[in-house]
Amino acid sequence: MFFERPDSGEVAVLVHIHLPDEKDREDPGEFLELVRSAGADPVALIEGSRSQPSPKYFVGDGKLEEIRDAVTSHEAEVVLFNHALSPSQQRNVEQALQCRVLDRTGLILDIFAQRARTHEGKLQVELAQLEYMSTRLVRGWTHLERQKGGIGLRGPGETQLETDRRLLRERIRQINKRLDKVRKQRDQNRRSRRRADIPSVSLVGYTNAGKSTLFNALTESDVYAADQLFATLDPTLRRIVMPDIGPVVLADTVGFIRHLPHKLVEAFRATLQEAQEATLLVHVIDAADDDRDGNIREVNKVLEEIQADDIPCLLVYNKIDRMPGYEPRIERNDQGEPERVWISAVNGEGLDLVLQAVGERLCDDIFKGELTLEPSEGRLRALLYQQGAIIDENVSDQGQFVLEVRLPEADFIQMLCRVGVDPKRYFPNYGVEDFMLDSDAELS
Q1: Hey, what CATH class is 198-362 in?
Q2: Which residues does the annotation say bind Mg(2+) (predicted)?
């Protein structure tokens, strides 16, 4: 499997073909970063143009000869294509070059195999690898043949290829069974958070946008963060306490990339479900990337694929330290709602703005004002203190408590109902019957 790797970087020849079709177009610069992230040593980049891929080799005969010359002159150990090859194309190119060939999907799987740390992550990667390999099995030896007549020539009745496929199917079944247990455990944890009414915020975005750096800065954690593609594979959850909101669960998720293999999305379904069931998505964007708009589109495609495109989303433009003249700020829509936040996570610039924007998006309805309470209303005053809602307090000449408060409207209305105060005193348009249910249970 791909988990077995050489001690030093493998010498690699890269192949990138420019295609006119936009959906098949790849970025050579991003491909080079992928190769370096995999630990390979790129020595040559063979480029060319075609109106459409060749059915046999993906490239033409002349370009194939150019690749063969590069492999020979550099003594390359692997040829990496920046495209998705069919099993037959990969097999034909390997036979023609007498060298190991890997396409873009196989390269991404190799990176995932290196980065997986937890048991769940390794299972997810292995499942994606097995699904990928199931169509690329080649019989490596012939000692298991079909049954023949004669003493000593009777085989088990299946070829080596059939045996490999049967073993792969069995292993895939075992991994899916284990991952089902992981999904059930994650579902149970999410149900517990929903019962406790704890909002969840998931960081999503293109790979290497700075999600883990932002996560560490907001939660004071030490999650692995590096300037490389797919530094994070295993999801990490931390609980933080936010003003007006209370406890919030923040999740760091795997980054997305162009043409993310569908099998990989399927294998990481348990991980991506943290994003699918989040209260709010924080889409982290590399603001300094030349193709940031294209990256945003790719992330939105994956969110649509995992059915998370209808979840409220806050855009966070990161890495403004690489953009002279840019300062941390919040951009709002026509309704005054935070829509974009410009920050530098690595320098800690604008982190307070992120928390402010997340708080506003999680709790749209905040009651902020001055209350005048009679001495007989001490129970309401005590509950407000218990919720941490009192900003300032004074006592009037008549002995009344003058409180400056800030808290979610729903919590305040439940509080009023509990102490027997008509909410219409502060919310003329609200009906008491809408907030009486379970008010005692919520505040007990």
Answers
A1: alpha beta
A2: 212, 232
Quickly count: other Cβ atoms within 10 Å of residue 352's Cβ.
11
Is 291 annotated to bind a ligand? Reply is no
Displacement of CA 118 from its chain's centroid (Å): 16
List phi, psi (to 5°) of 200. -120, 135
CATH for 11-102 is 3.40.50.11060
pLDDT at site 342: 94
Known binding residue 364? Answer is: no
Q: What is the pLDDT of residues 321-365, one digit of tens each?
A: 888 888 999 898 887 788 999 999 888 899 989 988 888 888 766
Q: Is 208 annotated as a binding residue?
A: yes
Would the annotation count 321 as a binding residue? Answer: yes
Q: According to the annotation, is 234 in a ligand binding site?
A: yes
Q: Is 40 annotated as a binding residue?
A: no
Report field, pTM of the whole predicted structure over 0.85: no
Whether 354 has a binding-site annotation, put simply, is no
pLDDT tens digits, one per residue of 167-184? 888 888 888 888 888 778
Domain extent listing, the chain: 11-102, 198-362, 366-442
Answer whether 198-362 and 366-442 agree in fold.
no
Q: Which residue in the block uniquely carries the two structure tokens 């808290």?
A: 407
Query: Per the annotation, does 132 bind a ligand?
Result: no
**Which CATH class name applies to 366-442?**
alpha beta
pLDDT of residue 5: 39
